[in-house]
C-alpha cells in the first residue's frame, strides 16, 4: 500500500518536566450516556484563570508559532485563535496555557500540546470538509471545542467520569457551540449509533487501533491516532472502500494509554 501524502515530518522532542507516562505530546459495548453540552453564563476575567483580555494576544502568539512550525490549515489556526485554552487548564497553570507543551488536567491525563492538536486536526481534515467527526478521549474538552469551530457535528467520548464532568463545565464556560455532543463511555468501541464519521481523532495510544473505529469511518474519511506502547507513532488511516483502508506513519509522539471500559 502506498502512503498517504503528508506535508511535513518533524523530529521527536519531549517537553521538559513531563513524564512519558502522561504526556500527549510530540516526541520530536452498550450505548454510552450522552447529553448535549449545556450553555452557561460567560465567566469574568478572574474566573477565566486570571488571563482576562490578555489571552487573545497570547493566542495570537501561539497561532503565529504554529504557522512557523508548519501548520498551514487556516480552519484549524482560526479555531485555535478563537478558543481560550486557559479555560481548559487549572488556574495554577493558566500562565502556561499558550506554551507549546502538554499540561496535566488531573486523573493522570493531560491536555495535548497545541502543535499536536493542530497537526492531528490538519491531517484528519486535509483536502476535506468533514461534517461529522468523532473524538475519542475528550479529556478536558479543548480539542472538541477546536473541532466545533469548523465541523458542524462533533461527537466526543470520555471514559473517565471526572474528566467527562470537567469537559462539560469547560465547554459551557467558553460557550462552545451546542452542536458538540459529549458522551461518557468506552471510546474503543466508538459510537455506533452516530455513524458514519467523516473523521475520527483518537487522543490516546493503543497497541493497535481498534477495528470498531475503522469500521465507523465513512469511505474517503480519515482517522488519526497514536499507536504503540514505549515507542509511539501517529498513524493516519484513510478508508478507501467498504473493505479497504490505507495507512501511513507520521510523527513520533508520546500519549497516554488507550484503555477499555469506563472509570467512575
- CATH topology title: Rossmann fold
Total DSSP E strands: 11
CATH class: Alpha Beta
Structural class call reads: alpha/beta
What is the H/E order?
EEHHEEHEHEHEEHEEE
Shape: globular
Q: Taking strands numbered 1, 2, ... along the chain, how are they ordered across the largest sheet?
A: 1-11-10-9-8-5-6-7-2
Instruction: Give the distance, in angstroms, between the N- and C-terminal Cα atoms.
Output: 41 Å
Summarize the structure.
By secondary structure, the protein is of the alpha/beta class.
Describe the structure.
This protein is an alpha/beta fold. The protein has one domain (34-254): Vaccinia Virus protein VP39 (Rossmann fold, 3-Layer(aba) Sandwich), CATH 3.40.50. Helices cover 23% and strands 25% of the residues. It contains 6 helices and 11 strands. It has helices spanning 54-68, 74-82, 114-125, 142-147, 161-173, 211-215, and strands spanning 25-26, 33-36, 103-106, 109-111, 132-136, 153-158, 180-184, 197-202, 217-228, 232-239, 245-254. Strands 1-11-10-9-8-5-6-7-2 form a 9-stranded mixed beta sheet. Strands 3-4 form a two-stranded antiparallel ribbon. Strand 10 (232-239) and strand 11 (245-254) form a beta hairpin. Helix 1 packs antiparallel against helix 2 (74-82) and helix 2 crosses helix 3. It is globular and about 50 Å long. The protein starts with 24 loop residues before the first strand and ends in a 10-residue tail after the last strand. Residues 1-22 and 29-50 have low confidence and may be disordered.
